[in-house]
Amino acid sequence: MDHYEIRKYSGWNHHILMCMLAHFFLWHLMITLGQKAPAITLPQMRTLLEVVLPLRVFDIEDVIEKVRRIQKKNHLAFLAHKNKQVKLSL
Questions:
Q1: 46-59 residues labelled b (16+ CB within 10 A) or e (exposed)
Q2: 49 and 20 fall within a common domain
Q3: Cβ contacts of 19 within 8 Å, gap of 6 or more
Q4: What pTM did the predictor assign?
Q5: What pLDDT does residue 89 have?
Q6: Mean pLDDT throughout 9-37?
Q7: Whether 62 and 27 share a structural domain
């Protein structure tokens, strides 16, 4: 669980959730299958989780709204960085 590089709290939550789900799945396999449990690698676990977990289906309005939010957030970050650079040069 300690090998992650994130910038936001939501990314940390996502990472921890995936780690916990993977751990629970391996724990469940070991309890259910005992000594017959397969040795699953991390890429194999990711593949299993991608198949098992439901994927969100986006419609065009959701995608456009998401792009607008990201663009607005990026623009605000750009302006904040630009203002910081101006203040530092004074």
A1: eeeeeeeeeeeeee
A2: yes
A3: 1
A4: 0.39
A5: 66
A6: 83
A7: no
**What is the number of structural domains in the chain?**
2
Domain containing residue 34: 1-55
SS3 content of the chain, % helix, strand, coil (to 5): 75, 0, 25
Which structure tokens are listed for 23? 């751990």
Co-location of 14 and 48 in the same domain: yes
pLDDT in tens, 56-67: 888 999 999 999
Dist CA 54 CA 50 (whole Å): 8
- Average pLDDT over the chain, rounded to an integer: 82
CB 25 within 8 A of CB 49: yes
Asked if residue 44 and residue 24 are part of one domain, the reply reads yes
How many separate helices (H) and strands (E) can be counted in the chain? 3, 0
